[in-house]
């Protein structure tokens, strides 16, 4: 029943920040997905007879690749596959299911917040038995394997009915089609005070959750509306569509602008939130206040003890390097560890597994905790709701008080998308070459205290990850970070992250872009963004 199929390697199957992402037509090339999946399996050991979890965000091409992955799991000797009904599993739900059922690992089919459709993006990512994204060592091995692969194994099992819950025999391997929401919703009930949140909704609390026609729709319907009693209509755009309704399922101020505008308007609900294609990102907007992901991490960490799952306190906080230092001040006050990792959720895995950190976050709209090994959009929203319910204050009040206590880290990210790869590389190389000469010099009256190319020394396994982004630190705590995105699928995306610390509450009400304008201009002086990219302004400001 199992066939060995000859194949030729592709040279471009290098996993990026979060798995292999390419345009759908690239994935549709003969054997492209098969090669990658086989390269994953060939890089693993000991999965014979074990369980593999498979699910995706429902985007175009999801079902086809899921069928292939199931047949290949059977062909390679897995004992069991757990797949979400309709091929659906949000990334955090997949992480949870891997952990809960002690699976060997999982394949998550998604390109996260990137658009979907016949000419848009698709992706495959492998998560290990701890529920987290494969570590670099493994993704490197997968890439190496993909360059020499000459065959893949696939069982002739026909199509599995992905829509019917229950067990199917697939050529000796058991396939279980599971409700994608149930286990996850149950986990959330153990972490948060659902009674308190329910009471808040009963009292007239209004919320808007934009699922962006992506995977969190069914999760939000079940948890917010059914279990927490939020009024029908709280979850919007809740039907997952293969092309996300033609939109970018990216919960930022550009792609979730309608929600933002509503939250800034006169009749704004009390709380607004959105999640991305695969459900791991979150956007949080209070009435007339946008909470940056960096601030959200800090505020959630400072208040997490109000939720039952975190009442014992936090073991530590971790954030990616470009994320603002707001959370550092919370860690300092709580007297707990603070860890600065490279961009990419996979770097948090060791800290979480080792019990060194409880809560993690990234500027890229990711927040999560040790309940799974992925960032988790709805989790962040529920923790916010729990905190709002316990404090009985608005998000704006909570933010204002937080800044008064800790000071405010003004923060913004400027993205230059689809820049010519060569120009972007040139900018980074040139900047790298000048790093040693920068400290001690001044730009626009601001003195540079230090500059480096961030390298991470993992305190758990001792591994070192170099070239993770260029940091220019100014005296007084301001900072500019330059980094090339690892998740784009065409050209290069240059990210400029700027941050300024303001301790004085009298200056906590400034417009963010204005508060940062000098710093932004200085960053351009230093790196020559306009000169290299030919762009007058960023494509996206968040
Ligand atoms: C994915 C990863 C995140 C990462 C983000 C931004 O969502 O899961 O951990 O922060 O990509 O990556 P990029 O390389 O595009 O800045
Ligand atoms: Zn995502």
UniProtKB/TrEMBL annotation:
The keyword Magnesium applies. PROSITE patterns: PGM_PMM. Transmembrane segments: none annotated. Keywords: Isomerase, Magnesium, Metal-binding, Phosphoprotein. The keyword Phosphoprotein applies. Residues 13-149, 183-285, 294-406 form the Alpha-D-phosphohexomutase alpha/beta/alpha domain. One of its GO terms (cellular component) is cytosol. NCBIfam families: PRK07564.1-1 (NF005737). This is phosphoglucomutase (alpha-D-glucose-1,6-bisphosphate-dependent). The lineage of its organism: Bacteria, Pseudomonadati, Pseudomonadota, Alphaproteobacteria, Hyphomicrobiales.
């Amino acid at each position: 029943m199992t066939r060995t199929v000859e194949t030729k390697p592709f040279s471009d199957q290098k996993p990026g920040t979060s798995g292999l992402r390419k345009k759908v037509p690239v994935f549709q090339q003969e054997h492209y997905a098969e090669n990658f999946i086989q390269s994953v399996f060939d890089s693993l050991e000991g999965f014979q007879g074990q369980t593999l979890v498979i699910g995706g965000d429902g985007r175009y091409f999801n079902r086809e690749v899921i069928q292939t992955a199931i047949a290949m799991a059977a062909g390679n000797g897995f004992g069991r596959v757990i797949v979400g009904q309709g091929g659906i599993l949000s990334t955090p739900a997949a992480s949870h299911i891997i952990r809960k059922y002690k699976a060997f690992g999982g394949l998550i089919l998604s390109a996260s917040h990137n658009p979907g459709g016949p000419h848009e993006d698709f992706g495959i990512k492998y998560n290990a038995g701890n529920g987290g994204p494969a570590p670099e060592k493994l993704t490197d091995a997968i890439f190496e394997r993909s360059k020499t692969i000459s065959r893949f194994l696939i069982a002739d099992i026909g199509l599995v009915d992905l829509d019917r819950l229950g067990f199917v025999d697939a050529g000796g391997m058991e396939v279980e089609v599971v409700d994608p929401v149930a286990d996850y919703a149950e986990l959330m009930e153990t972490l948060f005070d659902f009674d308190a949140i329910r009471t808040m909704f009963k009292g007239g609390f209004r919320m808007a959750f934009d699922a962006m026609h992506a995977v969190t729709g069914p999760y939000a319907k079940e948890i917010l509306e059914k279990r927490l009693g939020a009024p029908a209509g709280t979850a919007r755009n809740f039907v997952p569509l293969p092309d996300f309704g033609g939109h970018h399922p990216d919960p930022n101020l550009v792609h979730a602008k309608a929600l933002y505008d509503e939250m800034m308007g006169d009749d704004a609900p009390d709380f607004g939130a959105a999640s991305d294609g695969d459900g791991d990102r979150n956007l949080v907007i209070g009435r007339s206040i946008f909470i940056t992901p960096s601030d959200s991490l800090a505020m959630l960490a400072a208040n997490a003890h109000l939720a039952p799952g975190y009442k014992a306190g936090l073991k530590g906080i971790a954030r990616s390097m470009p994320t603002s230092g707001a959370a550092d001040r919370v860690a300092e006050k709580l007297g707990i560890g603070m860890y600065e990792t490279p961009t990419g959720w996979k770097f948090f895995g060791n800290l979480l597994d080792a019990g060194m950190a409880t809560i993690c976050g990234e500027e890229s709209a990711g927040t999560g905790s040790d309940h799974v090994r992925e960032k988790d959009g709805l989790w962040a929203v529920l923790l916010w709701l729990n905190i709002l319910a316990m404090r009985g204050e608005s998000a704006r009040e909570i933010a204002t008080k937080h800044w008064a206590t800790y000071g405010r880290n003004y923060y913004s990210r400027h993205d230059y998308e689809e820049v010519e790869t060569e120009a972007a590389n040139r900018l980074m190389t040139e900047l790298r070459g000048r790093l040693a000469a920068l400290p001690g010099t001044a730009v626009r009256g601001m003195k540079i205290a230090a500059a480096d190319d961030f390298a991470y020394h993992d305190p758990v396994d001792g591994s070192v990850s170099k070239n993770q982004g260029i940091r220019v630190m100014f005296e007084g705590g301001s900072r500019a970070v330059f980094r090339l995105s690892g998740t784009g699928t065409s050209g290069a995306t240059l990210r400029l992250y700027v941050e300024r610390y303001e301790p004085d509450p009298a200056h906590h009400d400034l417009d963010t872009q204005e508060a940062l304008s000098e710093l932004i201009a200085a960053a351009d002086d230093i790196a020559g963004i306009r000169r290299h990219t030919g762009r007058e302004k960023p494509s996206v400001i968040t």
